[in-house]
Write a structure and sequence with these properties.
Elements lengths: L1 H25 L9 E5 L41 H8 L16 H4 L2 E3 L9 H6 L5 H19 L1 H10 L1 E5 L2 H8 L3 H6 L2 H21 L4 E5 L8 H6 L9 H24 L4 E5 L1 H10 L8 E5 L26 E5 L2 E2 L1 H19 L2
Parallel strand pairs: 1-2, 1-3, 3-4, 4-5, 6-7
Antiparallel strand pairs: 7-8
Helix pairs in contact: 2-13, 5-6, 9-11, 12-13
Bound molecules: 2-acetamido-2-deoxy-beta-D-glucopyranose.
The site of 2-acetamido-2-deoxy-beta-D-glucopyranose (NAG) has 3 residues, from loops.
Length: 358
């Protein structure tokens, strides 16, 4: 009896202490932003394509063989991709779930969510090539997410998360390599410079819409040294399978224009804090001086023959796939290994922390 009374008396305190420790547990004091939210293509897709009808998938072995539990997730990688490393560095979860994945709920998405779709681009026509999620649709999904988050947490809490979250955006390679340089339509309409400007116009509108929806912290990744992707090297038969300079120069040009856009929008959009992530330089350095970073192979990928395979062509039944992906800069013909992703992320993270953790 005595004990029960004592318990009754203490109960409000117990509940208070319990809820306090739960709050501390689930919103880690170390988190520098409340959430990381991702838009883009396969460079940042954590598995949305698993749920749509496209041939561009990677939710089977050997993809994911170095991920937690050796599990293929739909990431185009043997392990984690840059948003995962960035989320972890900001004190949040070490892997960002895909918005369409039914294994997760809005409770999971409250601290990070990915709307990206492998194979997509700024240009609507690019998403059509492999029947993936068009970029405008990623924005529609984001709007739906905002509604769900408000219904789940209430307007005040949800709006705080949406405004203070770090947003990552990474795409553009497919517009050139899966669309402009492959199909005649865009080439007949635009010179490559005009096409860059066309894409940047779409990018600008997208960011203006994000800003109107409350987004304030945004890191924009431009193009990688896309002439050095193993697939492009493999087709450069008259150039001894070296990097395709033309594509790298287009990427550099595009990135310079993107930087100008960032400066312009930072000054025009009230409260906006945008950066362009300088990923090209470190990526290029890894490719040109792989041994400096502990790699043995940069010209070919780990998966299969390392020249043209990705998605279903990179399968577990292929006997040529390398045994140690850490020796390779590229995992498949189009995508870096986890180790490359980590080195690139480690180069970007200090700048992101300095800019966005307050
Ligand atoms: C892309 O398609 C969407 C949906 O049909 C449309 O609203 C948008 O204007 C298109 N974008 C461009 C640049 O044509």
């Amino acid at each position: 009896m005595k004990n029960t009374a004592h318990y009754q008396m203490c109960r409000p305190w117990l509940i208070f202490i319990l809820s306090l420790s739960l709050t501390l547990l689930f919103t880690p004091a170390t988190a520098k932003v409340p959430a990381v939210i991702v838009f883009g293509d396969s460079s940042v897709d954590s598995g949305n394509n698993n749920l749509i009808s496209t041939l561009l998938k990677s939710n089977f072995e050997p993809y994911g063989r170095d991920f937690y539990g050796g599990r293929p997730t739909g990431r185009f990688c043997n392990g984690r991709i840059p948003p995962d490393f960035i989320s972890e560095a900001f004190g949040l979860k070490p892997a960002i779930p895909a918005y369409l994945d039914p294994a997760y709920t809005i409770a999971d998405f409250a601290t990070g969510v990915c709307f990206a779709s492998a194979g997509t681009g700024y240009d609507n026509a690019t998403a059509k090539v492999l029947n993936v999620i068009p970029f405008w649709k990623e924005l529609e999904y984001y709007k739906e997410y905002q509604q769900k988050l408000r219904a789940y947490l209430g307007n005040k809490k949800a709006n705080r998360i949406l405004t203070q979250a770090l947003y990552l955006m990474s795409l553009g390679t497919n517009d050139f390599l899966e669309n402009y340089y492959i199909f005649p339509t865009r080439k007949s309409q635009f010179s490559v410079r005009q096409y860059q400007d066309f894409l940047l116009g779409i990018c600008e509108n997208f960011i203006r819409e994000l800003h109107a929806l409350g987004v304030r912290k945004l890191s924009l990744t431009g193009l990688p040294p896309m002439g050095c992707l193993p697939l492009e090297r493999a087709t450069n038969i008259f150039g001894q399978n070296e990097c395709v300079d033309e594509y790298n120069n287009v990427a550099l040009d595009f990135n310079r224009k993107l930087e100008k856009l960032v400066i312009k929008l930072n000054s025009e959009l009230t409260g906006m804090r945008m950066v362009s992530a300088p990923a090209y330089d470190i990526f290029y350095k890894i490719i040109k001086k792989p041994s400096l970073f502990g790699f043995e192979v940069a010209g070919m990928a780990c998966c299969s023959t390392g020249t043209f395979e990705m998605s279903y062509l990179c399968s577990q039944y292929n006997p040529f796939t390398c045994s140690d992906a850490n020796k390779f800069v590229f995992w498949d013909a189009f995508h870096p290994t986890e180790k490359t992703n980590k080195i690139i992320s480690d180069r970007l993270i200090p700048g992101l922390l300095a800019k966005f953790s307050h």
